[in-house]
Amino acid sequence: MVRFSWFAFFFIAVVLETANGSKPPNIVLTVIDDLGWSDVGFQGSVIHTPNINRLAAEGVILDNYYVQPMCTPTRSTLMTGRYPIHTGLQHSVILPSQPYGLPLNFKTLPETLQDAGYATHMVGKWHLGFFEWSYTPTYRGFESFYGFYTDMEDHFEHERLGILDLRDDTLPVRDKDGTYSANLFTKQAVQVIMEHNSSRPLFLYLPFQNVHGPVQAPQKYIDKYSFIENKTRRTYAAMLDIVDEAIGNVTRSLEKAGPVVWYKSVLSKAYIVGACLVGILYFKTLNLLNLPIPSSAETWKIVTKNVLWDNTLFIFTTDNGGRPKSGGYNWPLRGQKGSLLEGGVRGVAFVHGPMLKKTGVKSKELLHSTDWYPTLINLAGKKEGGRVDGFDVWETISTGKPSPRTEILLNIDLAPKEKRYRGMESIHPYYQGAAIRVADMKLLVSCPNSTWFKPPELYNKEMVIISFYHFQNSQVKGFIEVALYNITADPTEHNDLSQKLPDVVQKLQERLEFYKRSAVTPLNKPTDSQAWDVARKDSIWTPWRSTVGEKA
Ligand SMILES: *[C@@H]1O[C@H](CO)[C@@H](O)[C@H](O)[C@H]1NC(C)=O
Ligand SMILES: *[C@@H]1O[C@H](CO)[C@@H](O)[C@H](O)[C@H]1NC(C)=O
Ligand SMILES: *[C@@H]1O[C@H](CO)[C@@H](O)[C@H](O)[C@H]1NC(C)=O
Ligand SMILES: *[C@@H]1O[C@H](CO)[C@@H](O)[C@H](O)[C@H]1NC(C)=O
Ligand SMILES: *[C@@H]1O[C@H](CO)[C@@H](O)[C@H](O)[C@H]1NC(C)=O
Ligand SMILES: [Ca+2]
């Protein structure tokens, strides 16, 4: 009888194996907030990230991949495939009491994946607006949401400016005070995975709160980094360490989930008898031919081959560069979060999955965070509707084909001059400037200057180099009016070629002008005191201009 059930398992395995081949992949999109270019182990960091390193090594590392320099804009590119100049989110980020968000006329990635038959879940940070319910995740394509709406908050108390921001779907979660967010989110992600019915493909959007400030982590993880003297850096290391553990837990649960649910739903059906007969036949044949009969353990291995993980595309990306003040570093790249220099926008990222044809490689092809939208919906079998700025880069990632991209608009965020921008100065005075990458070259215009920030644990080793850049952790003053870098030859942006190559400057300036013509006015709005009134009354950040009722 024991053997008998193994036969059944085996048959199910074979059926699933065949079914899997044509099924759209499960997609797990993991975003690490403010993760620095050089902070993960596979970039040479001292921070311990064994799970991330292994997945990166087994997958494809994206070495020439760009994001936007801040949270809201990058997240908007993931959801829409559009450059922020086309959604109105190109300037700064949404603050808790500002009444705007990702415009409702853009169909989001989860909405499109839902059309393609996906189960869509989100765990973590939203940061794309919540002033009305219709802007929140469960109204924008996610079947479930567990996380927070605002830009940042205490990792233990889940409070932003002293007010709670934590929800399960639309309902306040008030009993998690003291539980670290990475633990909460991991537990929820694992639950989503284990409860997922694999008759539908899964889309899990998992934007962690880590490693964004406030710089906090459970003491046990901080203690692992006693060799890092600087306390901010030590705690940041702990924050990344726990994310690595989280990713280990999430991938392990993907390795377990899937067949059990399928097995349960199939068990009730009559053709299980047929399955067993085929199983018996198979084993009888092995017996007759004197071939070894697989042991229970081996059979289990075959059965579990059909877990979610075996058809999962796992994407790992930062949303912007590291912020040295909060312990994140982009060394040897220049600049930091908020800057259009490489340290702000060159994103650390990799993809992993059995559907990749060429793995264990570093892709040098030009890629941008807007590319996920068309790439993923095409993989899901749904041709994109509407215009996007991203490209379907699947062949590039999967087989190493040249990127369909020749250029990336990094952003256009110039201080207001025109009339329509007047009054915007009070919103957020920091303008990033404009930048564009075309093939090897990158042009920067009107960008706040920035320097090279070296992680403190590297000081002793390379004293000579650092003494040269010893304005450590202070934002260098001044503006880069115009600068041109050959990023392929000079990824650290040391050698400004704008004087030497004026024709190249002009060519790239024309491309910037081209994009400028299609830019929409930034949506930024002054803060609204009503947001505070409602938040204080409900003791949670909540939509305050509610036009739609809560979702049942
Ligand atoms: C990972 O799983 C282990 C075992 O269940 C748990 O103790 C640990 O807290 C989890 N890690 C995170 C980051 O939640
Ligand atoms: C999974 O979904 C299918 C199709 O909707 C359904 O028939 C089946 O009962 C579900 N299985 C479980 C275990 O919920
Ligand atoms: C530690 O590093 C942070 C930035 O990561 C910096 O602001 C702080 O001044 C450093 N502290 C010391 C004692 O060097
Ligand atoms: C920008 O900062 C760098 C590094 O500190 C410095 O070498 C350069 O002169 C500055 N450029 C401008 C235009 O201020
Ligand atoms: C940029 O650098 C690369 C690599 O050194 C070189 O092949 C290319 O010709 C350079 N491009 C320009 C426009 O100078
Ligand atoms: Ca961020």
From TrEMBL:
It comes from the Eukaryota. Its cofactor is Ca(2+). It comes from Porites lobata. Gene3D superfamilies: 3.30.1120.10, Alkaline Phosphatase, subunit A. This is Sulfatase N-terminal domain-containing protein. It holds the Pfam family Sulfatase. Residues 25-258, 305-381 form the Sulfatase N-terminal domain. Residues 1-21 form the signal peptide. Keywords: Calcium, Glycoprotein, Hydrolase, Metal-binding, Signal. The lineage of its organism: Eukaryota, Metazoa, Cnidaria, Anthozoa, Hexacorallia. Coiled coil: none annotated. InterPro entries: Alkaline_phosphatase_core_sf, ARSB, Sulfatase_CS, Sulfatase_N. Belongs to the sulfatase family.
